[in-house]
Amino acid sequence: MIFGAVAELARQAGGAPVARPNMLGALLPFVLVFVIFYLLIIMPQRKKQKKHLELVENLKPGDRVITTAGIFGTIMGVQKDLIELKVASNTNIKITKSAVGVIRGATDRLEGE
Question: Residue 91 belongs to a domain with what CATH number?
Answer without folding.
Answer: 2.30.30.30
